[in-house]
Amino acid sequence: MSNAVANGLAGAGGGIIAQIITYPLQTVNTRQQTERVAKRGLSSADKNALPAQTRPAGGTLLQILQVLKTEGWGGLYSGLKPSLFGTAASQGVYYYFYQVFKNKAEAIAAARKEKGRGDGTVGMFSWLVVAAIAGSLNVLLTIPIWVLVTRMQTQTQAERKIMEGKKEALLAEALERGWQESTLHDKLAELESVKPRPYGTLQAAQEVHREAGVAGFWKGIVPTLIMVCNPSIQFMIYETSLKHLRAKRSASKTGLKNVTALEVFLLGALAKLGATICTYPLLVVKVHLMRSLK
Questions:
Q1: Residue 293 DSSP code
Q2: Given this model, what pLDDT does residue 50 score?
Q3: Which of 66, 90, 134, 276, by CA, is between 20 and 30 Å from 190?
């Protein structure tokens, strides 16, 4: 098995494990990015008077608890199946092509050294290009999956807001027409008896195609391609830091030569943190585009 295939499989497996562990946070994060008050025309006082479930939660933990209360664990894991498939495909594709182009970059660097041009190591800019190419191919091949995942993560939230909007409209109508309490109670009971339609991967795909055709599955492609700089920045920081750490260890007299697994983990985490901080605004734009295709 080639090292590119091995890296692809390892990336897919690691991505699946990480996705299962962090998926509730991703769901809440997506909902926070697309949060809207159900009735935009309400005054500030009216918005504050809305029931608590119609207003954005005060923080991530509070919103997780709110989702658990109103939707159960299923709400936090809405869209998990296509997300796991997307993660496996995305991580597998990315790490496969990253290793392929990394091998080519290292071969070019070695060839340049033989010709007396360079020290045989891959430079920072080359790592950036390698990660950018792998990321671009990954985006083009897997973005339809993430469009569906985003739809499924926010569908329950959207239906809940629509329902609350209908309740508010019903209450306003009751006040305007002077309905008796029994009439209002019957109308509310009738409204709450309507069950939301099942919403799975097939339903999400049909909705996307109905709203925007085949092109809808690549909605948000521009900011997503721009966000390729996220893993590019991540791997540029990671590879450069790892190179300097190894060089420092080689020159050290302490006897410790190899980089430990914990150090590799910490370098990767810090590199990802830096890349995420730089590109988070683009992530917000991408989620909005994926959620609303009209």
A1: -
A2: 43
A3: 66
Q: How far is Cα 183 from Cα 173, in angstroms, rounded to an integer?
A: 12
Q: Is there a domain that residue 266 lies in?
A: no
Tell me phi and psi for residue 141, to 5 degrees: -85, -30
Is 224 part of a structural domain of the chain?
Answer: no
Tokens of 110: 């070695």
Core vs surface per residue 105-135: b (16+ CB within 10 A) or e: beeebeeeeeeeeeeeebeeebbbebbbbbb
Report d(CA 29, CA 60) in Å as an integer.
Answer: 8
Report the alpha-carbon distance of residue 214 to residue 221 in Å, rounded: 13
pLDDT band at 188 (very low <50, low <70, confident <90, very high): confident
**Rounded Cα–Cα distance for residues 133 and 69 (Å):** 43
Task: Give the range of the structural domain holding residue 129, as residue numbers without chain letter.
Answer: 3-218
